[in-house]
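Supplementary Methods, section 5.1.

A reviewer requested that the exact input to the structure prediction be made available. We therefore reproduce it here, unchanged from the version used in the analyses.
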Amino acid sequence: MRQRLVAYHSFKVPERRPSFGLPRDLSLSSQVNATLLVAERRTSLRLMCDLFDRLGFFDVETTHSGEDALGMLRAKKYGLLLADWQIGAMSGLQLLRAVKGDEKLRRTPVLIAATNLTCEQVVLARRTGADALILKPFLASALRSKIEEVTKRQSSRPAS
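The structure derived from this sequence is encoded cell-by-cell as follows.
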C-alpha cells in the first residue's frame, strides 16, 4: 500500500461552496481589494464572512474591537470596512470618526451594520462619513447592492 504525501501550507485556501443561486460577482469582488469586518460577536463575524464568501470575496479579515480595526487599517490598505454599530469600548460610530478623520484612511469606504437605527443615528452616521448603512440580519443580495453602492460612489469621487 502506497502512502500519500500531503503538503501543508501556511496560507488559507478558500473553500469553494455552492452559491445557493447567487452568482459570484467576481467583477464586484475585484473592485474591493481586502475587506475588514468588525463585530463584537463571533457568530456575526462568521455569518458575515460566509456572505462575503458567497459573493466571491476571499480576502476578508475580521476583528472584535474598534481599536484593533484601526490598527489593522493603518497597517494595510482595505477596499471596504464593514463595522457593526455596537462593537464594545469603541463604537462603530467612533471607529467611523477615526477613519474619516485620518488623512490616510479617509478614502476607505465604510459600511455600517446595525440591528436597528433611529432616524437620528442614520443622519449622524451619514454626516460622520458612512458610505452606506445596512440593517441586520441582511441577505447576500442586500449586501451586494450596498457594496455596489459604495464602489460606485468611490469611483465617482475625485482623487484627493
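The helical segments are 26-31, 42-54, 66-75, 92-101, 119-128, 140-156. These observations are discussed further in the main text.
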